[in-house]
């Protein structure tokens, strides 16, 4: 019995040393290391488990199943640790890689991350709109749109408020009473002699033809509402549009002649976010373009710097 007990203690030491060696070995023993990491996660020790899982992920001897399990556990551990250690963007990169593995369990976690990204961006839009911060609202809305599962109905809810803020900024920047507006319109009539009596449909057609870059048509669709014209430009045409802003100014000046008013032309991308607001500057007697934050998504790199 004494010998047996001694052998048992000796055997325990050997097994313990073997397990310890497995946890730091370059090859072999991956199942034991993975089990140990999962035990840590079950106790809520996600940071410690994550460190061990990162070491495991760098090994080249994992089977397909083991690698999938390691990736899934890395995804879950980063999600549970959360911000600020792991921003949502980093969590998404990790969990996307995990979800791409055949048989992965990370799709549910990835969906929860995407929902958080959308919710955070939507919340930032609402805060910015309430504060009257157009730039922050548009940037947050763009982040929302870039998130998987974004709801276009949210954009449709936000854009009218963004245009109100843009109009407010223009009103604060530009002076010019009714007399100056009338003088500016009178000065433009000679440039657009056939516009004043043009019907709504005819003017919309004229605007679509007038806003082009050579053979490239910039406007996908447009809508006239009294003294305000809305133009929609396809997102892939925005870089070209950024180099042909005079065409939008032309449309707005003609609109001012047609309505005899301080015309506004709203230019949106196909995602409906505001890109440019064109207005009649009565002091200068011509239309000018107010570049909104959304335009940065389509400007050529040199123009955006």
Topology:
Elements: H1 2-24, H2 30-42, H3 46-57, H4 64-81, H5 88-99, H6 107-131, H7 134-146, H8 152-173, H9 178-188, H10 200-210, E1 212-213, E2 216-217, E3 219-225, E4 228-233, H11 238-241, H12 245-259, E5 264-269, E6 274-281, E7 286-291, H13 301-304
List keywords for this structure.
alpha+beta; GMP Synthetase, Chain A, domain 3; 12% strand; elongated; disordered C terminus
Offer a concise description of the structure.
The chain is of the alpha+beta class and 305 residues long. It contains 13 helices and 7 strands.
Overview of this structure, please?
With about 300 residues, this protein is of the alpha+beta class. The chain folds into 2 domains: about 20-105; about 175-305, GMP Synthetase, Chain A, domain 3 (2-Layer Sandwich), CATH 3.30.300. It has helices at about 1-25, 30-40, 45-55, 65-80, 90-100, 105-130, 135-145, 150-175, 180-190, 200-210, 240, 245-260, 300-305; strands at about 210-215, 215, 220-225, 230-235, 265-270, 275-280, 285-290. The strands form 2 sheets. The protein has a 5-stranded mixed sheet with strand order 3-4-5-6-7, with helices on both faces. Strand 6 (about 275-280) and strand 7 (about 285-290) form a beta hairpin. The relative contact order is 0.08.
């Amino acid at each position: 019995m004494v010998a047996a007990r001694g052998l048992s203690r000796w055997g325990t030491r050997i097994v313990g040393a073997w397990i310890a060696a497995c946890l730091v070995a370059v090859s072999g023993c991956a199942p034991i290391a993975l089990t140990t990491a999962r035990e840590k996660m079950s106790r809520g020790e996600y940071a410690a488990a994550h460190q061990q899982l990162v070491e495991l992920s760098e090994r080249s001897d994992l089977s397909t199943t083991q690698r999938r399990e390691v990736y899934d556990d890395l995804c879950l551990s980063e999600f549970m640790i959360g911000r600020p250690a792991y921003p949502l963007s980093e969590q998404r990169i990790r969990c996307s890689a995990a979800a791409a593995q055949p048989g992965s369990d990370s799709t549910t976690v990835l969906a929860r991350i995407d929902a958080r990204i959308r919710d955070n961006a939507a919340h930032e839009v609402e805060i910015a709109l309430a504060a009257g911060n157009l730039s922050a609202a548009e940037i947050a809305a763009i982040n929302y749109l870039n998130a998987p599962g974004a709801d276009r109905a949210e954009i449709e809810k936000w854009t009218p408020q963004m245009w109100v803020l843009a109009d407010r900024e223009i009103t604060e920047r530009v002076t010019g009473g009714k007399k100056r507006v009338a003088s500016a319109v009178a000065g433009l009539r000679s440039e657009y002699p056939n516009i004043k009596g043009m019907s709504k449909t005819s003017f919309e057609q004229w605007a679509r033809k007038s806003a082009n870059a050579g053979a490239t048509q910039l406007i996908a669709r447009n809508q006239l509402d009294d003294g305000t014209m809305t133009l929609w430009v396809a997102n892939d045409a925005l870089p070209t549009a950024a180099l042909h802003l005079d065409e939008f100014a032309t449309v707005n000046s003609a609109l001012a002649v047609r309505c005899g008013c301080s015309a506004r032309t709203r230019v949106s991308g196909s995602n409906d976010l505001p890109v440019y607001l064109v207005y009649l500057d009565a002091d200068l007697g011509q239309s000018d373009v107010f570049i909104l934050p959304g335009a940065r998504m389509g400007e050529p790199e040199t123009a955006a710097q």
